[in-house]
Amino acid sequence: MARKQQDAYRCSECGWTSPVWVGRCGRCQTWGSVVERDAPAPASVASQEPASKAVPIAQVSAQAVNRRLTGIGELDRVLGGGLVPGVVALLAGEPGVGKSTLLLEVAAQWARGGSRTLYITGEESASQVRLRAERTGALADELYLAAENDLGTVLGHIEQTEPTLLVLDSIQTVGAAQTDGIMGGSAQVREVTAALVRVAKARGMAVIIVGHVTKDGAIAGPRTLEHLVDVVLNFEGDRHSGFRMVRAVKNRYGPSDEVGCFEMAENGIVEVPDPSGLFTTRHDEPVPGTCVTVTMEGRRPLLAEVQGLAAKVRKEVPVRRVTSGIEFSRVSMVLAVLQSKARLRLFDRDVYVSTVGGARITDPSADLAVAIAVASALVDRNFPHKVLALGEVGLAGDLRRVPGLERRLAEAARLGFELAVVPANSRDRRAPLPGRLEVVEVTSVAQALGVLDLRRPNRRGAGDPE
């Protein structure tokens, strides 16, 4: 791009010039008078005859693009049925979450299907990737490996190898010599991604690139990166827990609200087609302070167990509120509703709320489960552990309807639950109840606690209501 002239901006009042725009003139001190000098008129573009004519949309062929399964069912579920030829997908996640392990397995499965695969690593040496592949069983004859950091060399490997799948780990470690900026910077990332998109579309080659994330969890690099690619996937998980989740954020060829579940094992990453049991604990006897709910991750219902503890404190010790796996502000709101609307005495109690198995619950439908778990711990009264609760709690103590209720109840019935407490008028009366599940509809938190007999303490001094 041509360099701007020395004095590109001029004050319309006194003629003062400046190389950069400023809001106030440096000579006459007039606000808003500094404007850009007259720029040359843009060159006119001559029209060209298109290679193919535009046709009515109803006449466009609706034949589906031939997809290719990756061999990993949970990833195919998120992608919408596999990889489309020419697709460019971005997989982002925190360091150590397992991005490279997952994509190495994808590359191996693709190669075992008889299609040539090229794995470019910019963060590790080829021998390091070879050792990990041997440990996870990801060795295949049609899987080619190269360690490169230059875009031109990467394109050369593509021409020599002619793969149908390219995996690049990662986009921040590859630079273009003809582009200014440091490797991993906005300009470099934009240029490398644009080049790979052009090659993918021209060759019909599927491309999966790994992207870094910032400390806030956002994808590192310019926002243009997410616009250039066809699919954006987030790889989520707590490094202290083996559970991992791939979530589709953008998908031009499938649903953008789907999730896939995996688990990190000693020999690599393993898909988990039925993850509900990971977020619940099995007790020989019912335990106070626990309640199960069903959250929706994309279009998949997942059972999650919420545990609560209400410990009495001395007067001189400040009351504490601690949460793990659930948003602190939502728990604080539920506790306030319990005290104001359900008349439970919580102002002199330390309250701890946690999920099981490292689950992170953001679904508001878990509010009622939090309330029941805390109330159960407060009055020290248990109820059958085959009970689950669904409902968003309002500030008036009312329960609001939750989406996808029928699908949640079907998942609970499949896992043997016998009683479900749900908001009133939220169930489709025409739909039959799944299995032997009994559904109790309530209008408020206080009514839900009454159904489960959690309004009075189990023994003296174990959380007297106000």
UniProtKB/TrEMBL annotation:
This is DNA repair protein RadA. A motif (RadA KNRFG motif) lies at residues 250-254. DNA-dependent ATPase involved in processing of recombination intermediates, plays a role in repairing DNA breaks. Stimulates the branch migration of RecA-mediated strand transfer reactions, allowing the 3' invading strand to extend heteroduplex DNA faster. Binds ssDNA in the presence of ADP but not other nucleotides, has ATPase activity that is stimulated by ssDNA and various branched DNA structures, but inhibited by SSB. Does not have RecA's homology-searching function. Plays a role in repairing double-strand DNA breaks, probably involving stabilizing or processing branched DNA or blocked replication forks. The keyword Metal-binding applies. PANTHER family: DNA REPAIR PROTEIN RADA, DNA REPAIR PROTEIN RADA-LIKE PROTEIN. ATP binds at residues 93-100. It holds the Pfam family AAA_25. Belongs to the RecA family. RadA subfamily. The keyword Heme does not apply. Keywords: ATP-binding, DNA damage, DNA repair, DNA-binding, Hydrolase, Metal-binding, Nucleotide-binding, Stress response, Zinc, Zinc-finger. GO terms for molecular function: ATP binding; ATP-dependent DNA damage sensor activity; damaged DNA binding; hydrolase activity; zinc ion binding. Residues 64-213 form the RecA family profile domain. The middle region has homology to RecA with ATPase motifs including the RadA KNRFG motif, while the C-terminus is homologous to Lon protease. GO terms for biological process: recombinational repair. The lineage of its organism: Bacteria, Bacillati, Actinomycetota, Actinomycetes, Propionibacteriales. It comes from Propionibacterium ruminifibrarum.
